Fold these 3 entries.
Entry 1:
Amino acid sequence: MKVAHIEVPGLRIMKTVLAVFIVMIIGTFSQGLLRPYEMAIVAVLAVQGDVVRSIHEIHNRISATVIGGIIGTIAMCIIYITKSNIATIMLIPIGVFLILYFCSKLINKNEYILIACYVFLAITLDEVPEISWIYPIRVMANTIVASIVAMLVNLYNPRRKRRIRIEKEK
């Protein structure tokens, strides 16, 4: 008779589930200000195998979110004011170009590109009932709140005997 061996979930799995649970609670009770769906995705992506990588990932995610959010907000305002399909068709590629150029050439942070483009496109292309400055803030807040929750959850390690020393990468 064969005995099946079922492995106990690791700490990273449990931390990820806990981070998703917490952001779901925050998002659900935020009275529509935050979106649990978006926050859960960010929480899953933000919990990394170790704290240093997690903090690095969260820093990148928040920085990229702000870049995409600023460019997206400017483009969204222009699109909203002009109410023109031509403006939309022109501004979306221009915004993507600005993000690509800024991240890769001006600040040399290629790791920001994907998230910044995602946030930019979420702001400019999402069909939202209220087009205002509140929507870009909501998109950025989802990422920032979920990233902070994921980082705080990831800091907990019951096996750790000493304090964490976080050093900035060179």
Entry 2:
Amino acid sequence: MKYLPTIGLEIHAELKTVTKMFCDCPNDPEEQHPNVNVCPICLGHPGTLPTINKTAIEAMIKIGYAVSGAINPQFKFDRKNYFYPDLPKGYQISQYDAPIVVGGRIDISARIGEPKTVKLNRVHLEEDAGKLAHAKDEQGKEASLVDFNRGGLPLMELVSEPDIKNAKEAVAFAKELQLILRYLGVADADLEHGQMRFDANVSISSSIELGTKVEIKNLNSFAALESAIHYEIDRQAALLDTGKAVAQETRGWDDVKKITVSQRSKEAAHDYRYFPEPDLPVLAASDFPLADLKLAVPELPDAKRRRFKELFGLTAEQINVLVENKDEAEYFESAVSELEADEGEVVNTEKITLLFNYLNSDLKGIMKDRELDFSNLKLTPENFADLIAMAVKKEISTRTAKDLLVKMLEKGTDPRSIVQEEGLGQVSGEGELLAVVKTVIMENPKAIEDYKKGKIEALQFLVGKTMAALRSRGNPEVIKSLLEKDLSR
């Protein structure tokens, strides 16, 4: 039988603040030593009182504006009571019925290639729990160790409406949210460091009525999110096909066996015994600089995609590559603005595409080898654009352009200075090239014989030999023309 999946996501992301949510302990995801960024407040000692991190609230308001949500006129914190080894207080400070952001939407059309917008239910703020590490002691017995460094970090939770229909849309939604958070600068959302995690609510039905919802908890990669949803849809379908009922429960993802496993029956809100946090005040949105925070929201990924499409004539795939990294997109745009236009013309798509190709393959390849990123390059967009202009005008060969990139990254020098210092300009004059061509012809009689027998590849061999003799400075088109003219005699 054919079933219709319905999926909603709950996405957690740690916010990038200097200190934790309710105390002055450092917010340092890179800290490797356990239990050093802790204090009596985040460890839940009796008699301690939390204070609210204003920067985290302002980050949430910016997120609200970015996803077109409504900022609640008043919002508060609540205690969510449950017991777990990594939650020393026995409760988590979260938000229940008065979150900071209500509603909103995220457009994922550019990622899936068809129109699709996912509506949001809410975005609220809470504190993160600690982290459990499971290991064996010297006797081989299982042991669980608790690291509270993460406990108390400001944690955004975004809850979507059940608008998602398949795993592809779910991953697209998660990736677009990650990118929005990075553009805002409020979160790194690094999956490898556990700074972003997903819960997926999955149900299937053969009618318009929703099926029984199953929650898959703590998915820590896009691959896990996709695989877990695929598996859960198939698992529920197999149950319904055999006349069995799907149990409402919470399941975990076994990344080794690639299956979901039952953890507990699904809790309802009353199971957590929410009540208003008595140690924290109700906050009014009007107490925050809303107009300034709205203005601080930068151009977001989807708007940048639309603008790049109008301005640069690139393909959707090329635009997506650029937009995935805010610094890269800004570097590219700055370089394009520096490209020389032909007299009386605007910079054409061919030049822009060449610039993109050099940036995406050659420049990024060298950067990867040297562990560089676009935020700290010595190579300025102006100098990079000048390099492309020289290649377009055939002032330098393609090979020389690639070599120049390395030198420019190392020295931070403009390409024309290096070309002049090292004599790397492209040789295009027939008189200068002809002498080298004749020498190559004399030194390679076998290739000449092969060419006259109809082996066209022999011509390319001779072009290569000539280019080598000229240290890649020769104009290959002129060289080829001279060879063909000489060999036709």
Entry 3:
Amino acid sequence: MIISNEILARIHRNGEEAYPEEGAGFLLGADGDARQVTEIFALPNSREDTARHNRYLITPEDYLKAELAAERLGLSLIGVFHSHPDHPNRPSEYDREWAQPFFSYIITSIEKGKAIESRSWRLMEDRSQFVEEKIQTL
């Protein structure tokens, strides 16, 4: 996973602004030998108010808007980013149940409103577990 420091900083800001709720959005870019994020598409958290502190929801309409934005930019949807407020940046069981094997998932730990660290994960094709994907910043 290759991503610029500027885009990673935007992901961190998204998580900080959403705090104490989870923030989320799509990763747009190119999927080749080295997956590269070149843009993000931030989304509102559509989950009900009482669950936003530890869950996010991407609606079908959100997905369509992101697909159209990627197409306009000549990019592909290659993953999702979201934050874990006051929680480690490892995927939860809930994350595994809702993930798609072909996407990358950047999870940012937000502690007391401040982004601490991001890690990227890919779900194995058999959906059994996530495998960490190294993030290379430019």
